[in-house]
Amino acid sequence: MGNLKKRCFPQIDEIFYFNTLDNGLKVFLIPKKGYQENLAMMTVKYGAVDTEFTLNSDDKKVYPAGLAHFLEHQFFEREDKEDLSKQLTRLNADSNAFTTHQETSYYFSASGQFSQSLNILQKAFKSTHLTELSIKKEKGIIKQEIDMYQDDPDYKLFLGVLGNLYPDTPLAQDIAGDRDSLAEICKEDLEDNFTYFYHPSNRSLLVIGDFDVKQVYKDIVATERQFPIERSARIERSELSLNPIQEKGSLQMEVALPKLALGFRLRGLSSQSLLKEKLVIRLLFQLLFGWTSSNFQTWYEEGRVDDSFDIDIEVSTYCQFVIVSMDTKEPIAMASKIKHSLKHFTKSQDFTKERFELLKKELFGEFLKSLDSLDSLAVEFMNHLNGKETYFHYPDILSDLSFESVIEMGHYFNRASDISEFTIFPK
Question: Which CATH superfamily, name and number, covers 248-426?
């Protein structure tokens, strides 16, 4: 298999093959015997936050918010007027794409004609086919998408607290941008950013399923070799500015109950293992506020919270935050209770080594379940590519976590996190 390398994880009976091709494309192959479908995902390290950067050391670039998301939509346009999704549909492949703050991913799943679909996906990254007419049409579609999200209370809640935590930064912007930034997007901006960020060296290709590893790898290499190797741009991304937070914010919408989001922004969190930090934070918040905790059970029985209670954790090289959100009749009281519980976490009756070990087993069970879903595994695998660390290292990292590490994280939160509240009140 040439330079294709192999990593084995006997504890979970998983392996993956990987290599970086001559043009810089990183390839990962995960064989799964007995699966009826195969999945391919191409992920570009380019997301909504990449609006300001320096090109080739001295060329400062600034672009409108929402450009990465717009490019994702326009990427499906093809020269022959049959867009990418229709080409894949003709081969009975289901395709989709999504943009996050830091990445853009394109993927498809298919039970037959997989190699042909993969060939189409790879070739699509060699050029764009943008026209003024298609861009104008897309602006109308995305404008409707933006307007739709403006009427979504849960989305407005999340964006509101994120804007409080990271004011005047790309994180405070909708991934799709707004009407003003949408109007600024032009053909030249889209073509330039495609050239800067869609280079093979800034992309990773993942294939999962029951396939011939040698043949699929051979096909991938052959397709990439059809195109000349072009020089990549040197991109220096702007660091996230930790501006002073806005401690509180609110708005009114058509909701039955108030919605509360309590955000915690971390400062100075640094580790060689982002997965480890995320797991420690998750264990801390699950111990204190998980569905099996006495806190949650008491609040639920008292009617203070319901099944909408959620904990969202983001730990990346760019940002680290936790958002606790809920529907509640008592947003002010619940914000106070959560902050008080975290401040005095060591006194909680739930904060025991026994529950810690039990939660570790639950997390391991969730991990094993994720391995059986092509979509879940693809997203998690791509999300956790950090140096030599991958999603398959999850069990070892989880097993090595100590109760003391969670205690340390609790003290760190109380010492170094910035806290903000955002509430949506009924009109």
Answer: Metalloenzyme, LuxS/M16 peptidase-like (3.30.830.10)
